[in-house]
């Protein structure tokens, strides 16, 4: 049964990643209104006849999200019953279900009633939390009883990791806000400058875009510092150091893909890679926060 659980958790993790990418496609292609204000049906039909491209994209996203919701619920129940003695398993199982249901309800509300960009931007963040919790369940299924994934660090560095994780979620939110306010080209095609200036004239779109750039740069420096600190003071903590190595790699790739979005004038594949990399980075920092939180396997 352990092997089956591991395979199922991996499949569900990839499925959640697919949901994230499909959600990004819906936003990037402006397909959110592909079914009008009808939900859960599409224009009052289960499968609309002669659908437009945006309708196909929206219906596909709804169908995949619904199936993944079922898969996540099954995974959560399976994980809870399989390892009821692990507190973190129960927490992750609850979070995975709670946030996938919440993002589904938020998506439905966005279809039926118009929502502000501030509310819509939280949709991606909720999906990301559910993905990360499912990913953690999958990773923990591979740990050995005698070698659990735990990192022992100082209280100050543990707080640093927690605050880094929280800050990254805020950075993700600013990125989603850029997407939902149409501010991806708020600095035109300038990089690293913004509309030809280091500090631009702050129109609405330029302000949102510049805020995200600045927040992302701070995140880059913060992860670089944390990687260096872990490497210097916790060289013997192999899992911790490996986690920060991946975090550093992903933040480099994230910065590169972010600049390419501007330079390529919103190329769809580059934009999707940006969303994919941030998902990997969020999952990595989630894992780091988890292993410093854990004290022992009971």
TrEMBL record:
Sequence similarity: Belongs to the COX15/CtaA family. Type 1 subfamily.
Gene name linked to the record: ctaA
Subunit comment: Interacts with CtaB.
Topology versus the membrane: Multi-pass membrane protein
Record HAMAP family: HemeA_synth_type1
Record keyword Iron present: yes
Entry's transmembrane regions: 7-26, 63-80, 92-113, 119-140, 161-178, 210-228, 240-263, 269-293
Recorded superkingdom: Bacteria
The organism of origin for this protein: Fictibacillus barbaricus
Pathway: Porphyrin-containing compound metabolism; heme A biosynthesis; heme A from heme O: step 1/1
Reported function: Catalyzes the conversion of heme O to heme A by two successive hydroxylations of the methyl group at C8. The first hydroxylation forms heme I, the second hydroxylation results in an unstable dihydroxymethyl group, which spontaneously dehydrates, resulting in the formyl group of heme A.
Protein name in UniProt: Heme A synthase
Reported cofactor(s): heme b
Its EC number(s): 1.17.99.9
Claim: Ribosomal protein is one of the keywords in the record: no
Catalytic activity: Fe(II)-heme o + 2 A + H2O = Fe(II)-heme a + 2 AH2
Keywords, comma-separated and alphabetical: Cell membrane, Disulfide bond, Heme biosynthesis, Iron, Membrane, Metal-binding, Oxidoreductase, Transmembrane, Transmembrane helix
One family name in Pfam for this protein: COX15-CtaA
